[in-house]
Amino acid sequence: MEITTANPTFKLELTSSPHVHSRWSTKQAMWFVVLALIPALISAVIFFGPYQLLIILTSVLFCAATEFAVKKIRKRKITVDDGSAIITGLLLGLILPPNFSLSSTAIGAVFAIAIGKEIFGGLGYNIFNPALIGRAFLQAAFPVAITTWTQPSYAVDTVTSATPLAAFKFDKVVTSIEPMFLGNVGGSLGETSALAILIGGIFLIIIGVVNYRIPLAMILGMILFAGIFWIIDPVKYPNPLFQLFAGGFLFGTFFMATDWVTSPITSKGMWVFGFGIALLVFLIRVFGGLPEGVMYAILIMNSIVPIINRYTRPRIFGEAK
Amino acid sequence: MSSNAVYSKIEIDMFSFNHTKTFKGGIHPSDQKVLTENLSFEVMPNPKQITIPLTQHLGKPAKPIVKKGSEVKVGEIIAEQNGFISSPIHSPVAGKVLKIIASATVIGFPKDAIVIESSEANEHVLMSPLDPETVTPQEIRDRVRDAGIVGQGGAAFPTYVKLSPPPDKKIDVAILNGCECEPYLTRDYRYMLERTDDLISGLRLIMKAVGVEKGAIGVEDNKPEAINKLKKAVKKHSNISVEVLKTKYPQGAEKMLIKAVTGKEVPPGKLPFDVGVVIQNIGTAIAINDAVVKGEPQLTAALTVSGLGINKPKNLIVPIGTPLAEILDYCGGVKENAAKVIVGGPMMGVAQYDFSAPVMKATSGILVLTEDEVNDHEETPCLRCGKCVDACPLNLTPTKLARLSSLEKFEEAEQLGITVCMECGTCTYTCPANIPLVQWIRFGKQKVMALQRERQTI
After folding, report:
1. What is the pLDDT of residues A129-163, one digit of tens each?
2. pTM of the model
3. Cβ distance B314 to B368 under 8 Å?
4. Closest by Cβ to A16, choosing from B383, B417, B439
5. Is the dihedral of CA B338, B344, B347, B348 positive or negative?
6. What is the span of the domain harbouring residue B404?
């Protein structure tokens, strides 16, 4: 094409700078998270059997359907294809106990999306992690079912109590690290295998979906708090590695606390948020009535994210230190 | 911090090469320099008609001193400086003034311009060459002013003003900006390769004009050939160093470059003078050299014509006033899938709609981008991922500032430092939700600045 006159002969875009973009999109990031959850999904099937896929599928389907329905009722653009409801479904499914009832799963999924997310205005506006809201609701509604733990298929130890955390809390039994690392212990579907979680989590950090600060702060925080008490009394308090690998701590670290929407935007704030969660998890586990505290710790810290953002705003370049 | 402490920090930072210097934040866009980096400058023939806007610099428009029908020679003044922050304009061609009209410009607004029909004649009026070794600081400043030299980095600030620091400011170092951190552009790179000695001569004149002992040239580490060539050339000047900087946008922003080279931060609302630095672009240094050593006023612009949408990418030297259309034609025309024509770089340049707009003194590039190269993502809600906060080189909170601007909460935006923003576009580039962050911030910033002016008048 030749430009021989002052007037262009082709259609011109006239938006203002910058004219190029990183090509990152919300959708792409969301689907990377889905991909990163696949190792945890596989570990759930390996250790607890193929039935668990039905729980996860139910959770995903009901999350997606709820979002679709709410958007339809509110006459808003259907955004199911951005993948965020799928993630909520996967996350909720993976933090439920093995062989959990499908109808209860569906109720939890509807609650997670409708009350946890859409009531605030949808993706980007929710205060709390929707999957954790769903799980908290199920814990209140079905307290017995949600703490009934099936032993993993390859269980060889003679521990009778269900999860390592409960075993420690009620019987002072410390599960060894190796089965907890692989996932061959009692617990929620996707939470038992540290290996699977680390594969997905580190993948997300490397490609840049997850910022390293929150996971690092949580892990360092837990080592610090658990370490101090363990040094003081190694019989009464479990060692820091046990605290890291037990329960939902690693899953929460890489997949729940790092949720973009419900975590701080400032780098200092991310550190505060991570340390805060680690401290709360430790306090609940050691001094609280429940064996596990990851869910409540994250939900509590979610609620103060706006304050964290406000007080950790970075110093503007060139302003006095 | 006392000024002594600041000074010793420079000493340490400036002459240590054990790490690649940079600033915090920033982005790594695909640089696309491969399209033109190995093409030598080509001199484009004079067009038949040129259009010279009277506003090619920051400040007051120049005052025309020719009329319709006036005969002009190459280098003759056609519009004179009008006030302290202003710059004279010279005719880059010999010919006849056709008219003085309002013309389209590459900055997006029509401006008064002198239209000259060029003739075959090649009569020059040059200024007398000066000896760079014996010239005085005042002579350098006067020559730079009379030659109509303006900053080549984009803002087009009259250079002689930047060479006249207030007497109470102690200047420690003169820095040449060879970062060229905008993708696609290779003009400064070609200058560094093809006119190495002239740019060092220009830097030495700058150092002399502001009375500093130390000079530095900041270059990103993606230009190893330029770095080698410069390092060889500065060997005979022990007081000039070549600073290798990390390749990262916006490394060439004034504040970022000063931070990387000296470790000092220019406070909001302050100038490089305030931290003891004078900073100039590579192209400006060469123009200063030419004005002093050869007596040439600023008559041409060197620019990169690139992008996947132009048939023959080139590095060109063209007379000021050449219409964009002629340059695009000279470069083989645009391809079918061209979607956007930009003057400047892809991060901060201006999209063009009228190709009769002429090249100006500070024009550094013309890019023809295709549909694949331009940003056409859909905007989705902010997910508070914090990527913009992490990337902002000035440590602002772009998502918050953009939101406050869109809600018209300008006072709050002002408190959060919206006027500090230099509009580099890093936030918009990095946003996964593709929110036009810097665009909203620009809007808010203008409103806040209007509020501040109002307050001053009351």
Report:
1. 999 999 999 999 998 888 888 778 765 554 444 68
2. 0.89
3. no
4. B439
5. negative
6. 387-457
